Amino acid sequence: MIKWIKIAFRNILKNRRRSFVTLLAIATGFAAVSLFRGYADNTYWGLRQMAVRGEGLGHLTVYKDGWLNKGKIDPDRYMFSKEEIQRIIDLVEEDDDVILATPQIHISGLVSNGRTSAIFLANGVIPGDEKIIRGSWSAVRPVKGDGLSDARLYGVEMAEDLAGHLDLNLGSDAVVMASTLDGQMNALDIEVIGVYDTGSDATNDKYLRVPFAFAQSLYDTEKADRVVVLLDDWKKTEQARTVLLNRLSEAGLPCEIRTWNELSLFYSKVKGMFDMIFMFLFFIVLVIVVMSVVNTMGMAVIERTREIGTLRALGLKRRGVGFLFAVEGAMIGLLGSILGIVLNVGVWAIIRAVKPTYIPPGVSTPVSLIVNLAPQAMLILAVFLIVLSLIAAILPARRAARQNVVDALGHV
Amino acid sequence: MALIETIHIKKDYRLGETVVHALRGIDMSIDQGEFVAVWGPSGSGKTTLLNLIGAIDDPSEGRLLIDGQEVALLSDSKRSELRNRSIGFIFQGFNLIPVLSALENVMLPLQINSAPFSEARKKALRHLDEVGLSDFVHHRPDTMSGGQRQRVAIARALVTNPSLIIADEPTANLDSDTSRKIIGLMRDLNERVNTTFIFSTHDQRLLDNVGRLVRIEDGKILNGGDAQ
To answer: Which member of B81, B89, B111 has the closest CB to residue A3?
Structure first.
């Protein structure tokens, strides 16, 4: 085996220029796929963080069975009562993977500064729990001002653009109006104690975050429409959903549970788009690698026809000749992948040093272009390209192996 | 029993519409230890005959027996094994593997047969020493003279201790002094180790040294076909 690797390696070195072009094609393809994978991974991570912590979706959201279809028509019927909320929280928090289970209520209505009004969508949250859910995200999109507090029932956090439209600043007072669950108009005073950027143009002019008790008070209810669950690891989401659904069902609490990615349409759409681009890119690289290796090995077979004849005359079997060229193809894949890793790390280092930023569509502020180094993905890609190069070399290798010995020896 | 026996061998080539009769019925036998030259004008069928005896080509008709074994009945794989074990080749153009050193070239037939590295190296060094190339073992073919390359080819042909060595015009690309040395070396090995040599040549010096001369013309043996 070692002798064939030696011969393959020396033949690659012998045709330096041609080998270099082939290796460069493979390396460029490798780096392109790997860098995009790293970029996509980081984007998925960012979007996941944005959904779970930024949007406050947690990993799982528990609804009463029927809420998603009929909750808008008859909310009071499909909301959790105070007792149900407590039972759900107790049952959910039995699970060791659960960090937190907290009730929430989504409300909507009008917010007015006394002169003009605007529509708002608000999430009624328990301030202490919300801090836990936001976690490290607070540093990414910090709230200006004090932020929500159990001690300040009427203190709310307002999205930047909404505050701007209503000319409200930290400490400003305003009024929110909404229908109670019974259909009566209700109005409450608020004080803007926090201003934040939602990160999305679509929501930055509508969103409020209010204390849970305040939201209940506005809707004149003691109920909640959902219980948000935060897990210690997002990878456990599906497993936790199954476990919790069973547990709640057995306890006589028929519920529906949605995961963070099901609720975050933005994440799903971006992921779908990125996956499609990745497949497209991957297919292009696949074609480039196959064409390059087939071309290189085809040339090698033609140039070394006499050598093939000599090896056959010395007693090398047909499969031995095929193996020799297949090893050479695999080695081209290996060296191309190594060069690709070097190229990948080089570009990654440059991106880290330059720290470029860009504004994605629908996002309100610039975000950094960050590319993850993904060693496991690189390893898988390298193995794939080596196997692909080997397979691409098999066709010319078979042609080499099938040559008539006398014809091969007489080749000029 | 003869080492080589050809029974009415014919070989035809098709060149477009034309059929070329390269060999027109060759009956010949060669015993172990003979030093045989196949001689004749260009296009007489010398190389075709050597290719058939070397089991790298198939006759159109007739039978070829090597050590009593009919070559046509062997699979390609078995025929490769036969070549590796029993036949050594020396080519006019040396046909060394350019990316391998002299030592690696000589080790190659043994390694094709999966011989252990140390054993292959030991044997290759011994044969390179026999052909006077002890100081050139790590040289690659492109850094050696024509005579040195042909000696490497001879060492490579000998390294598996074959019963038969086939040489197609082994001195054609060499100057007269080197040719003389190569001829002497082949003759010496033939006498000392009893290896059978069959070669085609136009070289009168080589013809003067042969044990038996097979004269071939228009694909037929004119004389020297029977073992002496």
So the answer is: B111
Among candidate residues A298, A321, A289, A292, the one with its CA nearest the CA of residue A388: A289
Strands B212-217 and B35-39: parallel
**B179: enclosing H helix or E strand:** helix B176-193
Q: Are B58 and B72 in contact (CB under 8 A)?
A: yes
Contact residues, chain B, for A406 at CB < 8 Å:
51, 56-57
Note whether A7 contacts B97, CB cutoff 8 Å: yes
A269-281 per-position pLDDT tens digit: 888 888 999 899 8
- What mean pLDDT is predicted for residues B21-48? 89
State ipTM. Answer: 0.91
Q: Note the Cα A380 to chain centre separation in Å.
A: 19
pLDDT at A362: 67
If you ran DSSP here, which 8-state letter would residue B159 be given? T
Q: With contacts defined as CB-CB under 8 Å, which chain B residues touch A311?
A: 97, 108, 112
Write the pLDDT tens digit of every residue in B135-166.
999 999 999 998 899 889 989 998 998 989 99
Q: Measured in Å, how far apart are chain B's first and last C-alpha atoms?
A: 13
Whether B56 sits inside 8 A of A405 (CB atoms) is yes
Give the pair of three-digit tokens for residue B128: 């390179």
Vertex B19: Cα angle to B16 and B21 (nearest 5) = 145
* CA-wise closest residue to A11 among A290, A295, A296, A291: A296
- Residues contacting residue A375 through CB under 8 Å, at least 6 positions apart: none
Residue B40's SS3 state is: coil
The confidence score (pLDDT) of residue A303 equals 86
What angle separates helix A375-402 from helix A318-354, to the nearest 10 degrees?
150
Contact A118, A205 (CB under 8 A): yes
Q: Enumerate residues 9 to 38 of chain A having a beta carbon within 8 A of any beta carbon in chain B.
A: 10-11, 14
Q: Does A5 touch chain B (CB under 8 A)?
A: no
Please report the residues numbered 253 through 312 in chain A whose beta carbons come closer than 8 angstroms to any beta carbon of chain B.
Answer: 306-307, 309-312
Token reading at B185: 């070396």
Q: To probe the interface with A, which of B78, B92, B112 has the most A CB atoms within 10 Å?
A: B112
- List residues bridging with B64 in a β-sheet: B6
AA identity, residue A189: D
